[in-house]
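Dear U.,

Please find below the material for section 3 of the report. The protein was modelled together with pyridoxal-5'-phosphate; I have listed the sequence and SMILES used, followed by the predicted complex structure.
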Amino acid sequence: MNDVAERLRAAARMAHIEPFEVMEIQTLAREVEARGRDVVHLEIGEPDFRTPRPVVEAAKRALDSEPMFYTSALGLQPLREAIARVYAQRYRVEVPASRVIVTAGSSAALLLAFGVLLDPGDEVLLADPGYPCNRNFARTLGAVPRGVPVGAATRYQLTAELARRHWSPATRMVMVASPSNPTGTLVTPDEVASLAALTREKGAALLADEIYHGLTYGLDARTAAEAGDDVLVINSFSKYFQMTGWRLGWMLVPPELVRRIEVLAQNLFISPSTVAQHAALACFAPETIAILEERRAELDARRRFLVPALESLGFGVPVVPQGAFYVYADCSRLTPDSFAFARELLVEAGVAMTPGKDFGANEPERHVRIAYTQPIARLEEAVARIRRFLARKS
Ligand SMILES: Cc1ncc(COP(=O)(O)O)c(C=O)c1O
């Protein structure tokens, strides 16, 4: 068998794994920039802030003083303990450090959770619209993601009632994300408790993605860890702590799963990044938190500017986002096709946003996600460009 195309043919699973659309838009944006045009980047889920200085300094000190060997697959013990203290102090939930597992970003945590719980053919219920990689983690393992269409009536969140309605004999897991990407909405603690009760009744697992915790405006989110130690909770140093490129996250897992996840993590990752773990030890220091809280206030100011500005342009924002840094806007009054709209807006007006297609099959053509990851002056520029673009089209 010497034909290269045949020898390197794609595994069957690749037929079901779509490109991450936001990365495609970013590539197109770079091409537009290479042609000399300025682009306002509102596509990628990553704010313009750099990693806080105390965290960077901690990394530098560690590089000088610590051996950069593998750590335990579960993570550095002092970091696991520091994370456990956050749950006690910030959320008033007692979580033993033995249930905290440090991971290579929440992406690794999601893969590990799915990997130890889902067999081929098992179904996981998730909100649609939702974060696209979750579907593809499931598919990579041969499991089946079942998107449950959600809308403004449930603040774009899965409820126990919806989960019950979409339950099948193959359902093994329910997943929520709070605040959600792309909608920035939160699930209420009552709803988490109902979902936990439902998964117990049905013999399935509940997993809560809390990676945007810390980035909520006007309220502090409560953790799904409150609902019981059988709930898997996933979090990350990427978003609130602004460490996307360091690739570090964590998970809280039921005591029964610690060893199983350790074994899979040893095999898939050996250990999370050692330097990133030493850096993360500085994340909870008061001087780091002071920097991060200032940035949270800045993100809130951007949100308060952007939501009414988008509405004045003709976008609909049925539920005002309370967290993360996204507005999931209804663009159906402006275009029948959000995919073509996002591309035209980028090429003709120099504003990059993500079409709804990335987030599922629930009316993606009516929606775009706009990330307020740029300073207000740049958001003002984007709004002015969109206004001129729409005027030219009408
Ligand atoms: C909802 C959600 N979960 C998980 C991730 C993965 O983040 P990381 O692997 O950087 O922790 C992202 C990234 O944007 C996200 O939006």
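For the text of the report, you could mention the following: Residues 45, 105-107, 131, 177, 181, 209, 211, 236, 238, 244, 249 surround pyridoxal-5'-phosphate (CB under 6 Å).

Regards,
Y.
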